[in-house]
Every structure is written in structure tokens, then in C-alpha cells.
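Hi F.,

I've been meaning to write this up properly since the lab meeting, where we talked about keeping a consistent format for the predictions we share between groups. The idea is simple: the sequence comes first, exactly as it goes in, then the C-alpha cells exactly as they come out, then a line or two of notes. No screenshots and no reformatting. I'm using this chain as the first example so we have something concrete to point to.
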Amino acid sequence: MSQLRIPSARCASSSKLSGYCSTVVKRLKHYLLVRHGHNWVLFFRFGLVGLSGVFVNLFVAIMCKKLGPDENGIFLDLPFTDFNVRWYHVYSTIAFLVANLWNFELNRLWTFRSAKHASWVREYFPFLTVGILAQVVGLGILTLLMHPGSIFSLSPTFFDGSTGFRTRFYWAQLITIAIVTPISFLLNKIWTFSSVRGQHRVTEPSPENVESRHPTAGV
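Output, unedited:
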């Protein structure tokens, strides 16, 4: 009889382990897909808006380069220093301002759908502030990629400007956008469009509420 109990004990242990794993998986799915499912939707929408903003940003940067002076030329000497502002800094900032306004309108109307919860001015200035912070970081990255003395400088041998595909400024601008976009999303989600936070949270009913709605409640 003892020999017959061993497989039965192993089956019981295996069943408990399987049930525990199943519970963990269900809780994990609930945490990721239910409690934070809306955040994934927001991130996907923000990514689509950001992608459209990339094209707007690059288009404006390309137009500035084609219509303006050489991007490596000096725009402004910084007083009492050996540093200066180059035209590619100016082009990048103009492209940022246009793309920032584009992204804000789409995020306000579609991604976060906060137009009904807050005024345009109330949301735009935090959005612009976040964008400016990201742009400052972006200008630093852009300088590292464009400055010939930087260890991160894009190779002028390959990026010789012979074609649009081999133009250093375009690639430096694209790399900069890719780096600062996640930062912008987090700051905008937490601060700018905070008026809609909690609108889509999943609230689990308490046991008292569940009992009160039961057909036999009070019987």
C-alpha cells in the first residue's frame, strides 16, 4: 500500500505547483494587461504621434538646411568663451518648435484625450517646458554627434554630404530624436496630461459591494 501512495503524493504536489504557477501567471496578466493595459495603449498612441512628429521634425530641419546658411557655420559667438552656437543648433530648435506644437495637438486630442479636462494653455506650457528640457538634452547630443572633436562625432568620411542619406546633420537629428522621445513620454504622462490620470483605472469591487449586489443579499 505504501508503494501506491508515493505516486499519489507526487501528483498532489505537482498539482499544487501547477495551481500556484497558474495563479502567478493570472495575477501577472491582470497587472500588465488590466491594471496597466491603458498605459500600453497610451504609449502606442504616443509612439505613433511621435513617429509623425519625427517626419515633421526632419522635414523642417531639411527645409532649414536647404534654405539657410551652411549648418556648420557660426550663428552666434558666446561672449567671454571659446564656444559658439552653430546654425545646426538653430535649425534643430526651429524643427523642435514646429514638431512640438504638432505633437501636442495630436496628443491632446487623440493620445491622452485631455481636451475636455484642461485648457489649451494649461497643458501646452508644461508640454513646452518638457519639450525644452528634452531639446536642451538633445542639443547636447547633437553637438556630440556633429562636433569634429567629439569622440561620438559621426564619421565625416562616410557622412560626407554627397547625398541626403549621407548627410551628417540629418542622421544626428534622427539619433537625437530617438534618444529624447522616451524621456518626453514619461514626463508628459506624469505631468502634462495628468488631468486624465485615473480616468481609466480599473477598480475592483470590494467584497461588501459584491455581496450587496448578490440576488440573495438580505435574505
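Notes:
The longest helix spans residues 2-35.
The mean pLDDT is 78.

If this format works for you, I'll send the rest the same way.

G.
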